Amino acid sequence: MISVSNLSKSYNGVTVLNIENLDIPAGESFGLVGNNGAGKTTFFSLLLDLIQPSSGYIKNKNIIVSESEEWKPFTSSFIDESFLIGYLTAEEYFYFIGDLRGQTKADVDEFLKQYEDFFNDEILQKKKYLRDLSKGNQKKAGIIAALIGKPDVVILDEPFANLDPTTQIRLKKIIKDLDENTGTTILISSHDLIHVTEVCKRIVVLDKGETVKDIQTSQATLEELEAYFNK
Ligand SMILES: Nc1ncnc2c1ncn2[C@@H]1O[C@H](COP(=O)(O)OP(=O)(O)OP(=O)(O)O)[C@@H](O)[C@H]1O
To answer: Is the ipTM of this complex over 0.85?
Structure first.
């Protein structure tokens, strides 16, 4: 689904990401971990064509993302609040995204019903602009918006950060459900090794922009990652 070839990104002569080869098959739940500055957001930003590579390319379903927009209809993401439209209410934003993804208001309303628990009565029918929601509630809205219209690829940057424990547990369930019951390719970055090993079947570790581990998740993975980061 996603393939990376000789990809690098440098700023002022300093290379912050350098991935020779990486293939993420369709339907995989892929976790990206690494310390601060390892290059996780840089990788996702390149994948979403938000920044240009210094060399190499990423293909999403065989489309070079920096050369064509054709990957956009089947790819969706929540990286940060800049993905939201602050002067819309959550409903207005969901309908707007739904419209982009060929969903009617009724489709979106039906879709949102399954996330009532996740929203915990803090998002819908509040007559509040997205910019006035708390950071955690903005994130909830952004993550669910990213799932509207059943995109083939969903990219979430640190989805668990800033969420309360109840919401983190509910989010894990949502991600596992997506993974197990749909063919969605899910890419998640996280600093939470427990969550990421629980929801992702494969974990790649980035260190200073390089992939240093590529693990199919098993019972032993959490321990392996903890030992690695405890070095
Ligand atoms: N516009 C920029 N100009 C210069 N350096 C940049 C720029 N954007 C990112 N970097 C650098 O690229 C490196 C990788 O940053 P990135 O945000 O991808 O890391 P990360 O793994 O997402 O980190 P974190 O866990 O802290 O979110 C960092 O050293 C960062 O300072």
So the answer is: yes
- DSSP E strand stretches across 111-177: 153-157
In the reported structure, the alpha carbon of residue 87 is separated from the centroid of ligand 1 by a whole-number distance in angstroms of 28
Q: Residue 231 has what pLDDT? A: 81
Domains held by the chain: number: 1
Residues spanned by the domain of 40: 2-229
User: Ligand 1: distance of its center to the CA of 161 in Å?
Assistant: 17
Q: Are 77 and 146 in contact (CB under 8 A)?
A: yes
The answer to whether 135 touches 162, Cβ cutoff 8 Å, is yes
Give the domain CATH number at 31. 3.40.50.300
- Is any ligand 1 atom within 6 A of the Cβ of residue 41? yes
Q: Which residues of the chain have pLDDT under 50?
A: none
| Burial class (CB within 10 angstroms; exposed 0-12, middle 13-18, buried 19+) of 34 | buried
Burial class of 81 by CB neighbour count within 10 A (0 to 12, 13 to 18, 19+): middle
Task: Please state, in angstroms and rounded to a whole number, the distance separating the CA atoms of residues 182 and 85.
Answer: 28
For the full predicted model, state whether its pTM sits above 0.80: yes
What's the gap in Å between 128 CA and the centre of ligand 1? 32
What the block records as the tokens of 74 is 């089947």
How many CB atoms within 10 Å of residue 120?
A: 15
Burial class (CB in 10 A: 0-12, 13-18, 19+), 154: buried
Q: What pLDDT score does 153 carry? A: 98
Contacts of residue 185, defined as CB under 8 A and 6 or more positions apart, other chains included, come to 1, 2, 24, 25, 26, 27, 28, 30, 152, 153, 154
